[in-house]
UniProtKB/TrEMBL annotation, chain A:
Protein name: Simple sugar transport system permease protein/ribose transport system permease protein
Membrane listed as a keyword: yes
Phylogenetic classification of the source organism: Bacteria, Bacillati, Bacillota, Bacilli, Bacillales
Membrane-spanning parts: 45-69, 81-105, 111-131, 151-174, 207-225, 237-256, 276-299
Species for this entry: Sediminibacillus albus
Coiled-coil positions: none
GO molecular function: transmembrane transporter activity
Membrane topology summary: Multi-pass membrane protein
Gene Ontology terms: cellular component: plasma membrane
Chief place where the protein resides: membrane
Superkingdom: Bacteria
Keywords for this protein: Cell inner membrane, Cell membrane, Membrane, Sugar transport, Transmembrane, Transmembrane helix, Transport
Localization (cell): Cell membrane
PANTHER family registered for this protein in UniProt: ABC TRANSPORTER PERMEASE PROTEIN YPHD-RELATED, ABC TRANSPORTER PERMEASE PROTEIN YPHD-RELATED-RELATED
Automatic annotation (TrEMBL), chain B:
CDD domains (alphabetical): TM_PBP1_transp_AraH_like
GO cellular component terms, semicolon-separated: plasma membrane
Natural source organism: Sediminibacillus albus
Transmembrane annotation, as ranges: 12-33, 39-57, 64-82, 88-108, 120-139, 159-182, 213-233, 239-260, 267-286, 292-311
InterPro entries the record matches: ABC_transp_permease
Keyword check for Cell membrane: yes
Pfam family membership, one: BPD_transp_2
Protein name: Simple sugar transport system permease protein/ribose transport system permease protein
Single GO MF annotation: transmembrane transporter activity
Keyword Cell cycle among record annotations: no
Bilayer topology: Multi-pass membrane protein
Sorted UniProt keywords: Cell inner membrane, Cell membrane, Membrane, Sugar transport, Transmembrane, Transmembrane helix, Transport
From TrEMBL, chain C:
GO CC terms: plasma membrane
InterPro entries: AAA+_ATPase, ABC_carbohydrate_import_ATPase, ABC_transporter-like_ATP-bd, ABC_transporter-like_CS, P-loop_NTPase
TM helices/strands, residue ranges: none
This protein's name: Rhamnose transport system ATP-binding protein
Keyword Nucleotidyltransferase: no
Membrane topology classification: Peripheral membrane protein
Keywords in alphabetical order: ATP-binding, Cell membrane, Membrane, Nucleotide-binding, Repeat, Sugar transport, Translocase, Transport
Keyword Translocase appears in the UniProt entry: yes
Organism placement in taxonomy: Bacteria, Bacillati, Bacillota, Bacilli, Bacillales
GO terms assigned for molecular function: ATP binding; ATP hydrolysis activity
Compartment(s) of residence: Cell membrane
Top-rank lineage group of the source organism: Bacteria
Residue numbers spanned by region Disordered: 497-518
Leader sequence residues: none
Organism: Sediminibacillus albus
UniProtKB/TrEMBL annotation, chain D:
Signal peptide start-end: 1-19
InterPro entries listed in its UniProt record: Bact_Solute-Bind_Prot2 (IPR050555), Peripla_BP_I (IPR028082), SBP_2_dom (IPR025997)
Species of provenance: Sediminibacillus albus
Subcellular location: Cell envelope
Ranges of residues in domain Periplasmic binding protein: 56-314
Keywords: Signal, Sugar transport, Transport
GO molecular function: carbohydrate binding
Protein name: Simple sugar transport system substrate-binding protein/rhamnose transport system substrate-binding protein
Region (Disordered): 27-50
Length: 320, 327, 518, 355
């Protein structure tokens, strides 16, 4: 039986989990499992957002600043005495505005995404700085802090439930809707989709809007969890989210990528980060390990593809 | 095509002149030679790295590990200072060792991209993590300041020739050297060729894997030189000092007209891109713009520049009439 | 010394899943023009790529150059042996100058740090261009040239290489008649100098004009080599396909009805002008003309991807506006582009996903989610009715042959139930069996009431399928012919010289440009 | 294929949840008593100090910068002297969320004391609450966290005093109470830097009305090179500039470097917070007039010492003498500890320090 890329990755995740359970003291404690579940969603959502963009063959370098700006939106509402719901709505609106801007320049003007988002990354960062003067906005209500710190039914962290829901929604949107299909088709061959009557620009616009929506959800969880927001909220997730999407099997040139793969990759990152911390590794070594895994897994893919091709050629030779 | 390249560079030159005009109106210091020397000297490192990045982007790849590479070499230089005797020979030796260290790291990137065929952005993302992590782990972030530097190196760093700092000459040598390679050597033409059409290059017998290996190795080589420049400029080795610089470098290159899809890009265009970013940085303080608004302006200019460039490219493509329609 | 410049013996090549070449032989004499022919998929390109050093043959193959055995592992090995190959899709660098494009590759075996000698590059380029007697500025970049000019640059490159053996893969497909004539002269000149040429073409007439000998491949196997004198066109066709063929005439089977589609005063600067025509129910309208006469641009303008400057459309008498391809689909206009692999299909994706692509919105269930079952049903329906083989709906489109790929593209558009179907070069690169099938299919669609507009360069195809023929020339409609009055000569006359009289035999020569095909 | 994926995923989740449940039972049964008793810690620690002593976790804003490296060595030294396990760990970037994760992992490790120098006081609030619920003693050091939450707050100096002190030093160095000055800061969002700058501004406003601050505080990304370039630009655009106040440790060095190269040692005064060894070359020729700071090693030492007291149920008293540190001040609230007054490093005394 041949395993799909994603299943292999799932096995790697499982192996990492088991290995760390054995060697890292306290890895399996309820406390630790819980804190991993609290830590994973914010990064997971950003990684999913990045994956959706990468499936179209693009990249969104501004995604973490969209999240931060959206967090600023929520924080402004909360500190000005508005309720949780208006705050969430404003957070989402802020993010969608950013996404719409990216989407407009990418889909209507046609500039390549890496250039656009390189610019908007600086732009959004600037807007946050202009609003916050660089300082953090903090002190939100108890209720709001439950989003990132509370438990669902007193059992599972609410944030991981939110993440699971959005992961499933993303999976359904990508595999079960006409938009999702168009995203994959566009990522493989945008000329062919244009000649098939697909509204490329609308598909792309929705991609950037959806990515920014996920960023907003992540921002809401982060602001709630950290009870504050400032310009660098989540900025360390930027390149990591690209790494997670790619490790999860997403083709950096577009056309392929699955939610489940990205979720496995995010889990692997989480296990390693947490496990190595528990083992008392210097934090900078965590980056080294993650970088090494990224390259190793892709090198593995390369060699397994190569062997597969050799095997196929041999078979064909025999058949003839 | 020639006209097009020119047009690309003219548009960025126009933006530079426009900003320059506004700045010289706002601030009398802007148009002084001293200010310009400061701007250039302060951007020698970015300039050198951007030149290397230009070659990589021409082959339609990207390298996000440059800042980490440069830092790693700079840290090695700081370490070497404890060994090398205080003599001008040491400085020369440094120019031998540092680029080689960079070259080796660049080769690793190149091998992974060309032989193992992992997309460049992924490879360099991986090596960025690995190198930056190791540097931080080994140095624990401690920086070495000028008291530990050999006097000969300080003399080199402060040397001025005909009133120009030595680093400006270094940038000039790198720029002219790379321009020469790109314009007048076989490997340089091959870089442009594989960027223009990889399939064609295979057919005419260009070994594109070797060329890819070359551009990444050359990037590493230049990172080595940039590390010397960085050390000479800051007169300190700071393992955290170049964090995030890679995106500035890439922004400079694409502002300078290099096409992220490959095939286009020039050294003088890239230098203009570096200059534009540098003037914006410099000008913000000179123009007394509120520090909080600096990024808004910079970001907006990048977005406008890349959009404008793309639109004018599209327009010029449309103008190439396909068919002579009879009157 | 051997009389052969090149001998390739016992060449086999296995790709994952297929045996592309099976013990093929090719022998080319010095100074001869050697035609390599066979249907698409017969293995011509693979053989050439092996000669070029791009593919490695299976073990056992032997190559001899001028009688001496040699190995070709890399492209440069072939170049050093004096082999120069001009591919159909060209091997140019759009971002480099003409001169450099001509020169490039000559130094490939030199040290990478070798300094480029721009003077000798200019000189080489000037000389080669002069020899070709073409007027191209060696300093312009190639992307500013027309396709025809680019082809000439490619030929100039081969000249500059002073190759002993030049392979030309469909070299005339984009050249005008006068350019083709020039090319023949160059070919004659080269062979008189002792340079050998392998000429690959579908156009048998053209081949008889220039070739000394023929080698025929069929299904990856070697059929034989023949002197030009001992063989004729009919025999060659027979050898290529293993049977006698000609296009069946697809007569109109229903009465033409009302006008269902009207194009009025279409104009786009630099593309076309004064385009007006109409289409009746049950009719197949053929549009032909030279490459570059504006046919494809017109079709894409109707389809909404190449917006016209002015003009109007009517479907069933109702005026419509098409702003985008999506709009076109909604309003019942379908367009099947010529570039099947890059524009028609998403190759990596399955047959199902390709077929349902234009009508994803109709594939949704009550929850607005895609209904896989109806997608599969749809795909299976068209796989069956169009006889796509292999009939595996989940197979990626890239794994299908050209003919089957075209069927998938047609299936994709039939699923959208268009009122008007525009099909651009429907049988380009498809073998003869599949061609006739597609011709029948187009007729069947017309019978079912779909308005079919077929764009083709292949006159026999136009004559076999259309009920009416529009001829375009320089962006205008230069003539309209009913099928009864249409002949190849008349069509050519309109295509070349609008309205004016021309010696029919001369016009016939120009059919090299509009293929007479096989 | 799909099924397998689903099964794998389910298994993975299940393992996680089961493990969580199992561990929860065992964890909750002994965690309470464990922490109260302050005894037994889970084995395998790579930290300094005795085998079975207390586990004290010290979390800096980030690891890998000289300042926090210096406090690390002080903390480790204290661990050896006082026979406690010191776990000095933090994020690699001064990122609030990364810091929270480090603390969460420390809670998982079940340490006895967590002392944190928060990047963002508000953002560590929830996680410190969680730590307290687990029976872990919580304190802050270097930068204050939420007062309500912490059991003890260790401060190198009084922020207000420190800011005003720097302002005074600058005026002193300028030798005039009138003129233009500029303020450089490490980052716009660093809380303690902002406190110092505010205090300094207050000092200027109240006591030196002739001083004019020419621009908003200018961020330098915690990089010497950036501070250097910005200062060069400042010197050009404000030719009458008399002084630069540079807070954050790399900023004064960059500012001084610019002054040094322009040869403006006598025209422009630079005062800022920097370590004496780093400042030495600039103090030497007067490009940096005074560096104001404290001994970060001592601060680390004090943090661990107080952490141990806290875990053992003692509270520090005002004027108490802490071995290896000196006399401390405790404020009225009973839990804010001030290590001592700021130290001035000048040309004369810089060579006497080894940090």
């Amino acid at each position: 039986m041949k395993l799909s890329k994603e299943s292999v990755l799932g096995l790697i995740a499982l192996a990492t989990f088991l290995l760390l359970a054995v060697i890292a003291p306290g890895f399996l404690s309820s406390n630790n499992i819980n804190s991993m579940m609290f830590q994973l969603p914010e990064f997971g959502l950003i990684a999913l957002a990045m994956m959706v963009v990468i499936v179209t063959g693009g990249i969104d370098l501004s995604i973490t600043y969209i999240a931060a700006l959206s967090g600023v939106g929520a924080a402004l509402m909360l500190t000005n005495g508005y309720g949780i719901l208006p705050a969430i709505i404003v957070a989402i609106l802020f993010a969608l505005a950013c996404g719409a801007f990216n989407g407009f320049v990418v889909s209507k003007i046609g500039v390549s995404p890496i250039l656009v988002t390189l610019g908007t990354m600086v732009l959004f960062e600037g807007i946050i700085l202009a609003i916050t003067k660089g300082s953090s906005i903090s002190g939100f209500s108890e209720g709001y802090s439950l989003i990132g710190n509370g438990y669902y039914l007193g059992l599972v962290p609410l944030s991981i439930v939110i993440f699971a829901v959005f992961a499933i929604i993303t999976a359904i949107l990508l595999s079960k809707t006409s938009w999702g299909r168009s995203v994959y088709m566009y990522g493989s061959n945008e000329t062919a989709t244009l000649f098939s009557g697909v509204k490329n620009s609308r598909v792309l616009m929705k991609v950037y809007l959806y990515a920014s929506l996920l960023a907003a959800i992540s921002a809401i969880i982060m602001t709630s969890r950290y009870n504050s927001v400032k310009v660098d909220l989540g900025s360390s997730y930027l390149l990591q989210s690209v790494a997670a999407a790619v490790l999860g099997g997403t083709n950096i040139h577009g056309g392929y990528g699955k939610v489940i793969g990205t979720v496995y990759a995010v889990m692997i990152f989480q296990f390693i980060r947490n496990g190595l911390n528990l083992l008392g590794f210097h934090s900078s070594l965590v980056d080294v390990v993650i970088g090494a895994i990224l390259i190793l897994v892709l090198a593995m893919n390369f060699f397994s593809d190569k062997f597969k091709k050799i095997a196929e050629t041999k078979n064909a030779g025999k058949a003839a | 095509m020639k006209a097009l390249l020119k047009q690309k560079e003219i548009s960025i030159l126009a933006i530079i002149l426009l900003i320059g005009a506004v700045l010289s109106f706002v601030s009398p210091v802007f148009l002084t030679i001293g200010n310009f020397l400061d701007i250039i000297e302060g951007n020698v490192v970015i300039g050198i790295l951007a030149i290397g990045m230009t070659l990589i982007i021409i082959t339609s790849d990207i390298d996000v590990s440059v800042a980490a590479l440069t830092t790693a070499v700079a840290v090695s230089i700081g370490y070497l200072f404890t060994f090398l005797p205080d003599s001008w020979i040491s400085v020369l030796l440094l120019f031998l060792i540092a680029p080689v260290i960079g070259l080796v790291m660049g080769l690793i990137n190149g091998l992974l991209v060309s032989i193992i065929e992992i997309p460049a952005i992924v490879v360099t993302l991986g090596t960025l993590n690995i190198i930056a992590g190791l540097v931080l782990y080994i140095t624990n972030g401690n920086y070495v300041n000028s008291t530990n530097f050999p006097q000969s190196f300080m003399a080199f760093a402060n040397y001025e020739l005909l009133g120009l700092p030595i680093l400006i000459y270094l940038l000039a040598v790198v720029a002219i050297g790379t321009w020469f390679i790109l314009k007048h050597t076989l490997i340089g033409r091959s870089v442009l060729a594989i960027g223009g059409n990889t399939q064609s290059s295979v057919r005419v017998g260009i070994d594109y894997k070797k060329v890819k290996l070359f551009v990444f190795a050359y990037m590493g080589f230049l990172a080595g030189i940039a590390a010397i420049a960085q050390t000479a400029y800051t007169k300190a080795v700071d393992p955290n000092g170049m964090l995030g610089l890679e995106l500035t470098v890439i922004a400079a290159v694409v502002l300078g007209g290099a096409n992220i899809h490959g095939g286009r890009g020039s050294i003088h265009g890239t230098l203009l891109g570096v200059l534009l970013l540098a003037i914006m940085q410099n000008g913000m303080i000179l123009a007394r713009i509120d520090t909080y608004w600096q990024n808004v302006v910079t970001g907006a200019i990048i977005v406008i520049a890349v959009s404008y460039d793309h639109l004018s490219y599209k327009r010029s493509q449309d103008k190439l009439a396909k068919i002579e329609v009879e009157a | 010394m051997s009389e052969y410049i090149l001998q390739m013996k016992d060449v086999s090549k296995t790709f994952p899943g297929v045996k592309a070449l099976d013990n093929v032989q090719l022998e080319v004499k010095k100074g001869e023009v050697h035609a390599l022919i066979g249907e698409n998929g017969a293995g011509k390109s693979t053989l050439i790529k092996i000669l070029a050093g791009i593919h490695k043959p299976d073990p056992g193959a032997k190559f001899y150059f001028e009688g001496e055995e040699a190995k070709i592992n890399k492209p440069i090995d072939a170049t050093l042996k004096g082999v120069s190959i001009i591919y159909q899709d060209l091997s140019l660098f759009p971002n480099l100058s003409v001169a450099e494009n001509i020169y490039i590759g000559q130094d490939s075996n030199k040290k990478p740090w070798k300094k480029i000698n721009w003077k000798s590059i200019k000189k080489t380029a000037d000389k080669a261009l002069e020899e070709l007697e073409v007027d191209i500025d060696p300093n312009t970049t190639v992307e500013r040239l027309s396709i025809a000019q680019q082809q000439l640059v490619e030929i100039a490159r081969a000249l500059a290489f002073e190759a002993k053996l030049i392979v030309m893969d469909e070299p005339t497909s984009a050249l005008s008649s006068s350019e083709v004539e020039k090319l023949y002269k160059v070919v004659d000149k080269l062979s008189s100098r002792g340079i050998s040429i392998i000429f690959i073409s579908h156009k048998l007439k053209e081949l008889f004009r220039v070739s000394d000998r023929f080698t025929v491949l069929r299904d990856g196997k070697y059929v034989g080599s023949y002197q030009a004198e001992e063989i004729d066109e009919a025999k060659l066709i027979n050898l290529m396909v293993g049977r006698e063929v000609s296009y069946e005439k697809n007569e109109k089977q229903v009465e033409t009805g009302e006008v269902i589609f009207q194009v009025k005063d279409f104009y786009k600067q630099g593309n076309f002008k004064d385009i007006s025509f109409s289409l009746k129910k049950g009719e197949v309208l053929g549009i032909t003309g030279l490459v570059g006469s504006g046919r494809t641009e017109l079709a894409q303008a109707i389809f909404g991807v190449n917006k016209p400057d002015s003009g109007s459309l009517k479907i069933y008498g109702k005026e419509i506006r098409i702003r985008s391809s999506a709009d076109a689909v909604k309003k019942g206009v379908a367009y099947i582009p010529e570039a099947r692999q890059t524009q028609g299909l998403v190759l990596e994706q399955s047959i199902i996903n390709n077929i349902s692509l234009p009508i994803l919105n109709r594939m949704r269930n009550k929850l607005k989610l895609l209904d896989r079952k109806s997608e599969v049903q749809l795909a299976e329906q068209y796989i069956k009715s169009l006889d796509v083989r292999p009939a595996l709906p989940n197979l990626p489109a890239s794994k299908l042959s050209g003919g089957n790929q075209q069927k998938v593209v047609i299936g994709k558009w039939l699923s959208a139930q268009p009122k008007i179907l525009i099909i651009d070069e429907p049988t380009n690169g498809i073998d003869i069996g599949a061609k006739t099938e597609i011709h029948k299919l187009l007729r069947r669609l017309a019978n079912d009431g779909i308005g079919v507009i077929m764009i083709s360069s292949e006159l026999p195809e136009i004559l076999a399928v259309s009920d009416r023929v529009l001829v375009m020339r320089h962006g205008r409609i230069s003539g309209e012919l009913g099928i009864q009055e249409a002949t190849q000569e008349k069509i050519m006359n309109y295509a070349l010289n609008s309205g004016s009289k021309k010696n029919p035999s001369e016009a016939l020569d120009d059919t090299s440009r509009i293929s007479q095909g096989v | 294929m799909k099924k397998l994926t689903m099964i794998l995923f389910a298994a993975l989740l299940l393992v996680g949840i089961l493990a969580g449940c199992v561990a929860e039972n065992s964890g909750s049964s002994d965690s309470g008593g464990d922490a109260e008793a302050g005894g037994e810690s889970e084995g395998e620690s790579v930290q300094a100090g005795g085998e079975d002593g207390l586990d004290i976790a010290v979390v800096p804003k980030l690891v890998g910068i000289p300042y926090f490296n210096a406090s690390e060595s002080g903390a480790i030294e204290a661990g050896e002297d006082l026979e406690v396990n010191v776990n000095y760990t933090g994020p690699t970037q001064a990122d609030a969320s990364a810091q929270v994760k480090v603390i969460e992992d420390l809670i998982s490790k079940n340490v006895d004391v967590i002392a944190v120098a928060p990047n963002d006081p508000a953002s560590v609030e929830p996680v410190l609450k969680k730590a307290k619920e687990q029976g872990i003693h919580v304190m802050d050091w270097d930068t204050p966290a939420d007062k309500e939450l912490v059991d003890l707050s260790v401060k190198q100096v009084d922020d207000e005093e420190f800011g005003r002190h720097m302002a005074k030093k600058l005026v002193e160095a300028m030798g005039t109470e009138e003129g233009e000055i500029a303020i450089l800061t490490g980052g716009l969002s660093a809380a303690n830097l902002n406190l110092w700058i505010e205090a300094a501004q207050k000092e200027f406003d109240e006591n030196y009305p002739g001083i004019e601050i020419v621009s908003e505080k200018i961020p330098t990304e915690e990089k010497q090179q950036v501070a250097y370039q910005k200062t060069l630009d400042l010197l050009k655009s404000y030719p009458d500039l008399k002084g630069v106040l540079a807070v954050s440790t790399p900023a004064p060095l960059g500012a001084a470097q610019a002054v040094q190269e322009e040869g403006l040692q006598d025209e422009v005064s630079v005062v800022g917070s920097a370590l004496p060894t780093d400042s030495a070359p600039f103090l030497e020729d007067g490009s940096l007039d005074t560096a104001v700071l404290w001994d970060p090693g001592k601060l680390g030492y004090l943090t661990v010492a107080l952490g141990k007291m806290l875990a053992e149920g003692e509270m520090p008293e005002d004027g108490q003498e802490i071995e290896g540190v000196g006399e401390i001040t405790v404020k009225e609230d009973g839990k804010t500890v001030i290590m001592g007054p700021p130290a001035d490093f000048t040309k004369e005394n810089a060579a006497d320090f080894d940090f």
